[in-house]
Amino acid sequence: MLATDRIIFRTRMTDRVFSILGGLVTLGAILFLGVLLFDLARDGLSRIDWQFLTSFPSRRPAQAGILSAWVGSLLIMVVTAVTAIPLGIAAGVYLEEYARKNWLTSIIEINITNLAAVPSIIFGLMALGLFVYRFNFGQSILAGGLTLGCLILPIIIVATREALRTIPRGMREAAYALGATRWQVVRHHLLPYSMSGVATGVIISLSRAIGETAPLITIGALTFIAFLPPGPIATDPQFAIQPFKWVWSPFTVLPIQMFNWVSRPGEDFVQNAAGAGTVLILLTLSMNSVAILLRYRIRRRIKW
User: Does residue 304 surpass a pLDDT of 60?
Assistant: First the structure.
């Protein structure tokens, strides 16, 4: 066997061994995750019913529910998405297409990349000093949503920039050659073709945000709450339209409610926590499914 053939054979064997080891590691991770999900669903599905979803927390485990927790999680995610997604996409587009490549933008890019890996408790401490004490937002849904928005903002910016970099340079040059402005190139060419990659980053970031606990506990989210935020229309004591009053309401979320239940003695509370965890996973999967469906429709529209 020639030296070249031996090198080729050795390279192919190395690739095959690496592929087998990678497949085994992936299979082991999937099996481990499946066992955890099965154990959670086994304990939690039997607890989930209409009473569990529509009742407030209680000292009696059989009467306790997660109404305030899942409503709080949804409202927190609304504020997080409204604040982080437009700002993150706009910042990513600016840094990639408009900003000059100099030492200042290099420092900004390094800091954004580092912020994506900062522990969430640091964002909670920042939000405690900035949103709660400096801006006097208090222990409100607005403060919690802005905290999680700051947490996922670097992820969305990085994902947006990476998605824009995948678009060939020739598409930009062709549009400029036809007389398009920079904004027209971004609006009609770059954003539509990069939207699938941007949507992937948004899905990952929102999935992380909905399960966060540490930053919300830091800013003072409640562990026990037996009321819902006020609705957009008040009827007592008089009729009034208040579309944004709910953002100033105290809140709790599903991870905090789970933490509260697992810290109590008794198997019934542990079963309640498993039920809340199952609902949290279902909410996350539902949110991801909607985002994936939107991404698929965007891709299909671009192809046509």
Answer: no
